[in-house]
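Contributing new complexes? Match this layout with zinc ion.
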Amino acid sequence: MPLRLKPGLVWGPAYADLVQNCKEGGYALPAVNVVGTHSANAVMEAAARNRSDVIVQLSNGGARFFAGQGLADAHTAMVLGAVSAARHVALLAEHYWICAVLHTDHANRKLIPWVRDLVAHSEASVAAGGRPLFSSHMLDLSEEPIADNLDACETMLTRMAKVGIALEMELGVTGGEEDGVGHDLDAIDNAKLYTQPEDVLAAYDRLAPLGRFSVAASFGNVHGVYKPGNVKLRPEILKASQDLVARTHGLPANPLDLVFHGGSGSDVADIHAAISYGVFKMNIDTDTQFAFAEAVGRYAADNHAAFIHQIDPDSGKPYKSVYDPRKWLREGETGMVDRLTRAFEELGAAGKSAAAA
Ligand SMILES: [Zn+2]
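Output block (do not edit by hand):
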């Protein structure tokens, strides 16, 4: 019996079912960073066109941008921008007829107040008879000692589970830089680039009894896109963690929900291997940013005159219909939809939407 869910925001038990469906069905969902309604709508359009569900993701910087750069207080902007984005997506996803997971990206120690305030918004919504705003939030304390990482995750998951929100945590470090929360590749001890199975087991023991949680695991992945050859992915690293947890607790294969950060620019073979080891979510940001920019850039180059004159200086014809933002922003959206179509195919998610007809 295939999984059937109500279209729209997926959270709580439905989120758990969706994650399980991905792992059992051998596919993963792209988690796409958005910074405004244009990118959010492009993600929903791409999911609908590919008959897939999708994860809409906000970094703290993306959330702040969503609220508008003119909002002076950075903390207020990153909280309300995320709230605004979550409401926008939750309102429209059901009309795109897709299941949408809403998630916030990396939050280190300094950003815990951001996550806490978002959880408070969800608690208020649930207390008023509604649903949480987000399906899951990430804490990334991978730079800290594991005991501190797990303590903070335990506190946060205990609170979030009460309102049906899941946690994503990071063990081992993802290299590269993303929104000021990242790691300088040269400065990291090589062993930390690969998640240690004993750490994953410790996380499972602490967090599994509390609520649904996923692990951003490091297997040589790096944020951003670099020259080929700079990054050597070893997805088989993930298997060691899955096997240790399964063996210790007598569980079936792939008990952990794993997340692949730094998915942009990855080989399809590595993506497929990662999915076979229990990855249900692959983050994609750099490649969709480029797809948006490339399409806008091409349009602006092809219509250069309309970006410097309101009226054609020779013919006197108005350029209004060319510089109308709906024209060039639409090019960006379309570029993003096309890039995501490839992602849905590579992740095996195309045609798998759980949204009930
Ligand atoms: Zn990441």
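Reviewers usually confirm one structural detail per submission. For this one: Residues 74-96 form the longest helix (23 residues).
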